[in-house]
Write a structure and sequence with these properties.
By secondary structure, the protein is mostly helical. The chain contains three helices and no strands. Helix content is about 90%, strand content about 0%. Helix 1 packs antiparallel against helix 3.
Amino acid sequence: MKSIQSEASSQKASANASTRKLNGLNTEVTSLKQERTALSEQVVALQKQLDQAKTEASAERGKAQAGELALSSLQSKHQQLMQGNSACRKDNAALVSLGKDLLTRYESKGVADVLAAKEPFFQVARVTLENQAAEYRSRLDAATVKP
């Protein structure tokens, strides 16, 4: 009987240990389920953040492309304006040169030139003067900016 009692007590102790182990495992299972639920919620939140970051990145990429297109357009317009400015400067320099030439001719005009221009018979000086006037007109027309 002692051996039966000792065996019963041993089995009782083993059953108690198994019950405690089962309770510990049940607690661990519950804890793992809660952890799994928390991790699943965290994955969903992170996925939302990732989707939002992708959307924002796409929007920023679109803005950057629009900015690059606008910059390219402005650079093209700037280049056109620089070419126009260069042409205007060239024409202005030609007009300044023409004006200086006319002033020099006017300042160096003497009495002999005035009398030769008024000479009534051959009018050689008059023809020369008209040829020079035609040359100046053509130089003015060449340097004038056309709209």
